[in-house]
Amino acid sequence: MAVVSFSLNLSLDILFTLVQLFGICLTVIRLNSRRATLRIWWDDYAAAVAAFFDLAYVPLMWISYAGPGSVVNSPTSLLGRYVLGLQLGFISIWAARVSISLTIARIFAPGDLTRTFAIAMAYLCVFFFLILSILYTADCYSRMHLTEDLTTAYCIRTLSKRLTISIATLITDTCLLATPVYSLWRLRLPYKQRRLVIAGLIAASLTALVTVSCTVLMYGPLSWNPARVTLMNKTNNLQLGISLIACNLAVLVSLISNARVHRGGLRSNTATLTLTQVTIDHTTYLQSTRQIQSLGDTHSSEVGVASTASTSSGRNNLSLTSGVETN
């Protein structure tokens, strides 16, 4: 029988809380940037929904650390908190998947086949969310007893329920991975568009990796209990944060790229202004030198004229003097 220690449990909660808060901060940056540029679309609204419900989910992770005699740890509170956390987590994770689908669709022009398929994936995510949400809620309320341990494993005890969840997540994550892979393999995309598609591929890979981890724990042997149930809950918490980061990844890459281009444009303008100033200064210097030369030539001419006039006057005076003396 495997057991997760209290220190490890606390460390994982701190780490996964930081991951979720980081994803929420990325969403805020994304929404501010899109609002400033007037480019908000449905993928941004889906990311906002995922961040909102994730933010509401974070306090539920820490209520369990209250004392055993606390009101929040009563059987009724445990049931309500568990079902609430289940719904909040489901909404956040599937809203993030919808956002990733629409972000991939936004990379391509209207009418493109890849864009149409990505939008269809978003509708598929909404459909699976509704089906699984009803499945979880109905199964938990009908089979739970307040005296029993309230865990996700109890809600999905039957193999049919587990297979339904696994098939839905497998289809969704496979489609999310296949779309950018197909675009990179079959289409010749510009460099900027190709970079965004790669970001979408990384985002889909992150969500798929965490989903596989949750699936492995779901089908793990009973000998892993109670650590299996605890690690499954922790992995779900990690999935919330990773999904939120993943749905903002392509937008984050775009923002960084635009910032670098803008910074490079400023440097280019500064260099152009500097060269222009140097050219102006050089031209001014040449003009000043020519003016000085012109003034020097003019002054020399005036001095030469004055000297000639003085010499002629002297000669005339000498002639007159000689004549007088001759007379």
Describe this structure in words.
The chain is mostly helical and 327 residues long. The protein has one domain (6-248): Rhodopsin 7-helix transmembrane proteins (Rhopdopsin 7-helix transmembrane proteins, Up-down Bundle). It is 84% helix and 0% strand. Helix 1 packs antiparallel against helix 2 (42-63), helix 2 (42-63) runs antiparallel to helix 3 (75-107) and helix 3 packs antiparallel against helix 7. The radius of gyration is 39 Å and the shape is globular.
Give a quick set of tags describing it.
mainly alpha, 327 residues, Rhopdopsin 7-helix transmembrane proteins, disordered C terminus, single chain, 9 helices
Write the SSE topology:
Blueprint (H helix, E strand, L loop, with lengths): L5 H31 L5 H22 L11 H33 L5 H31 L8 H4 L3 H28 L4 H28 L8 H21 L1 H78 L1
Helix % is over 70%
Oligomer: single chain
Shape: globular
CATH class category: Mainly Alpha
Number of domains: 1
CATH fold topology:
Rhopdopsin 7-helix transmembrane proteins
Second-tier CATH architecture: Up-down Bundle
At the fourth level of CATH, the homologous superfamily is Rhodopsin 7-helix transmembrane proteins
Rg from alpha-carbon coordinates: 39 Å
What structural category arises from helix and sheet content? mainly alpha
Number of helical segments with 4 or more residues: 9
In whole angstroms, how far apart are the ends? 151 Å
Order of helices and strands: HHHHHHHHH
Largest sheet: none
Low-confidence stretches: 268-286, 298-327
Q: What number is the mean pLDDT?
A: 76
Strand content: under 5%
Annotation, overall tally of beta strands: 0
Family: Belongs to the SAT4 family.
Protein name: Rhodopsin domain-containing protein
Transmembrane segments: 14-33, 45-65, 85-105, 117-138, 163-185, 197-220, 240-259
Organism: Agrocybe pediades
